[in-house]
Design brief:
Blueprint: E1 15-18, E2 33-35, E3 43-46, E4 54-55, E5 58-59, E6 62-70, E7 86-88, E8 99-110, E9 119-123, H1 125-140, H2 146-172, H3 177-188, H4 195-199, H5 205-220
Antiparallel strand pairs: 1-9, 2-3, 2-9, 3-6, 4-5, 6-8, 7-8
Helix pairs in contact: 1-2, 2-3, 2-5
Length: about 220
């Protein structure tokens, strides 16, 4: 049957941002960790897939999250063939000594509770793939290899990266965040032949990056 991928020895490889490193310009993404809401646990991780968490450009009213629990310290290799109902989060900036996302503690919360200024961590691309692999395995006992997960998640992760750059630049010009996000989504468009459609193809994804970054430069004058 094989084994799950072990978490990286260097915990920094799990994260894109931690603590105050992050920016509200980055959209909500699967694997984001939030602190200080009205939910019962101290911190929760957004587990809803990015393609399912939105209705158009807006977040759905309720989103699925899993609880961050204090588990136990384990060598990285021990996670590959056990502890399947958890995903380790070493170095997460919460009070838990050995934090992990618990798939057994899943609930829905109002999306308004997941304010971006309450986000304390965003996973790296590797971190997202490791989370997805463990969550899929928890639900199905099927192991999906990381390259396959990357192939399917890359369009969404690239879109998030480009939206962050677009919105960050717009905020610096004094544009309201909602307006900047709407403009970005409109620029990507929908349907066959759109930039969003081009994101789904590895051969044309670079063209989308160039088009978005050119529009950002043009807007900056």
């Amino acid at each position: 049957m094989g084994t799950l991928a072990a978490p990286p020895e260097n915990e920094e490889d799990l994260y894109l941002y931690r603590g105050d490193e992050g920016t509200v310009a980055r959209p909500h993404m699967q694997g984001d960790v939030f602190f200080g809401g009205m939910w019962a646990p101290e911190a929760v991780m957004l587990i809803t897939h990015p393609c399912s968490m939105r209705a158009g450009a807006n977040l759905r009213e309720q989103l699925a999250v899993v609880e961050i629990v204090d588990y136990q310290r384990l060598p990285a290799g021990r996670w590959a063939d056990g502890h399947f109902d958890l995903s380790p989060l070493p170095g997460l900036p919460v009070t838990s000594e050995h934090p992990a996302a618990s798939f057994r503690h899943i609930q829905t919360v109002p999306s308004g509770e997941l304010a971006l200024d309450r986000r304390v961590a965003s996973l790296s691309e590797l971190g997202v793939q490791l989370l997805q692999q463990r969550f899929v395995h928890h639900l199905t006992r099927v192991i999906v290899d990381l390259p396959t997960l990357y192939e399917h998640s890359s369009p969404v992760l690239t879109e998030a990266e480009l939206q962050e750059e677009w919105v960050e630049a717009a905020l610096d010009r004094g544009v309201a965040q909602a307006e900047a996000e709407g403009a970005f989504q409109a620029f990507l468009g929908h349907g066959e032949g759109s930039l969003r459609d081009a994101l789904s193809n590895a051969n044309t994804r670079g063209q989308v990056r160039r088009a978005v970054r050119k529009r950002i430069r043009d807007a900056e004058g």
